[in-house]
Amino acid sequence: MSGQIRDATLVAAPKQRNTNAEKNDLREGQIPQEWQDKPSKLSHKDRHARWTLKFTKA
């Protein structure tokens, strides 16, 4: 389960299904070319998402 913080609570959010190439680009601080070509896809991606813990479970 992934989530977003809203009012200090965790809520479910869509899972990011990024390819390995997209993940590498994001780690380097770049936006993948395919996302730049499709602004609607870029708006649905959370480029700053990270893992969080809830009750000591990832």
Verbal overview:
- The protein has 58 residues and is of the alpha+beta class.
- It has a domain at 3-42.
- 33% of the residues lie in helices and 14% in strands.
- It is built from three helices and two strands, in the order ββααα.
- The longest helix is centred in the middle third of the chain and has 8 residues, at 20-27.
Average of the residue pLDDT scores? 77
Total number of helical segments? 3
Work out the number of β strands. 2
| Helix and strand composition category | alpha+beta
Question: What is the topology, as strand order, of the major beta sheet?
Answer: 1-2
Strand fraction: 5-15%
Radius of gyration, in angstroms, nearest whole number:
13 Å
Map the helices and strands:
Layout: E1 3-6, E2 9-12, H1 20-27, H2 33-37, H3 39-44
Give a brief description:
The chain is of the alpha+beta class. 33% of the residues lie in helices and 14% in strands.
